[in-house]
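Lab meeting notes turned into a lecture example. A postdoc, R.K., suggested we walk through two folding results consecutively so the class can see how the record format repeats. The first protein's sequence and structure tokens come next.
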Amino acid sequence: MVQLQSFVFSPLQENTYVLYDETGEAVIIDPGCYEPHEKEALTGFIGQNELKPVKLLNTHAHIDHVLGNAFVKRTYGIELYLHPSDLPVLKSNQILAPHYGFRAYEEAEVDHWLEAGQIIDFGKAQLEVRFVPGHAPGHVAFVNHADRFVIGGDVLFRGSVGRTDFPLSDHNTLMNSIRTQLYTLPDDYTVYAGHMDPTTIGREKKTNPFVRM
């Protein structure tokens, strides 16, 4: 069974996730840690639970989701996975980061490209990669079917959806991604988003004011 620990990092209130199972192997998803105390919170949890991080995954490359990429790669000697369509977003952060107040931001090199349908393994667990562009051109979600949850990044929120007023964003593409890639999952799947509290597929299909089914 996969265990999940979330952290809320930076003034942008981004959700970082650590997933692990009984083997102790773990993946770190969207590390938004920037300040020293945030990095200590992440490493402290991993150390206290004697976890072994084996992969670093990004749902997408907006600045709040990648602030800790370089730190995590350096600390644990693990490799970064990102969808190739989000490389322009990642590269833009060198210019954008200071405007958000992140003057010490370090860009991390991507080691592996994600693709739709790919299976990410760690320990005894698996994550299915689903391509869900719209908020960002290379956005993906990670689905764990065994424990019935989704790490959805900034696609679908509790009562909301991801912004599409950024460069390379597109509202119609986002709506299509939600309908075809997330709303096709069973209603009881929990959605752990990049911001705010978790929700479920069924709740959003019934009540989300932006996209109902």
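The second example is placed directly after the first for contrast:
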Amino acid sequence: MSLGLWGALLGAVGAAGLLLVAARVMVIRKPQLSVRVLPYVRDLPQVGRTAALRPVPGDPTSAAVGVFGPVLRSAADAVEKVLGGASSVRRRLDRAGVDKTVQEFRVEQVVWGLVGFAVTAAYGLLRTLGGDAGVLSSLVLCGVGFVVGVMAGDNHLSGQVKQRERRILAEFPTVAELLALAVAAGEGPVAALDRVCRRSNGDLSADLERVLAAVRTGEPVSSAFDTLAARTGVPVVARFAQGVAVAVERGTPLADVLHAQAADVREAARRELIETAARKEVFMMVPVVFLVLPVTVLFAFFPGVIGLSLTIP
């Protein structure tokens, strides 16, 4: 091949590379759909956002997700077929305030199971190298580790639900009082809800922001609060949402209802604290009986014992 043909070939390859780089730069510079749409729908609930509106991940883990994602999703489907209960998982995800789908949670459970499998596999390998275990027992132990990891992921979600509901109970009296003050000052339910959401921060405020977003999209106030009552797992918040819905529908004094509910929650919290202290009374006696009392008896009788040993020949 002549020198001119080699130069033409290299020029064509260089031009093709430059065209590919330019095309990729144009694609990168093009604004994503989420960047163009999300500023106009930022008040909408974030749970259940479709894949088209999710920001495209730009971290290095996206490559790992692309490689291992199909395998993990297949394993998650298998776990879903074995365990079932997709509706229960969806409800617990809503109650925990976790922005995940059921399949994403199942994938997370599979990851928990793989961690348990890895730990038990490492332990089994060490036992096998030491000559204390066989291959069959190690395989059974690895299977048990995978199952324990999957169940640990489910228990972790239940723990998240309990912690969030505990925080909501702690926030509820303050939020209810703020709503009552705003309504008593002459604001409507929607304006009062907007003011409280802007002035407060917490899990209950996040739920109220979802209610406010639903109202702004055209849903009636009573229907939005009924949805909150059906979604939440805290009975106090459910009664609060039902009371607000009834007050809006029938025109009853909303401020009195909110003050009464806040007082009921504080009274319930005080009663629960007293009941917890009564249940822990026996455990509170353990250090007194087994630590403080023996030390007191020792201090009382030890000088007498020493005196008797000195006086008696």
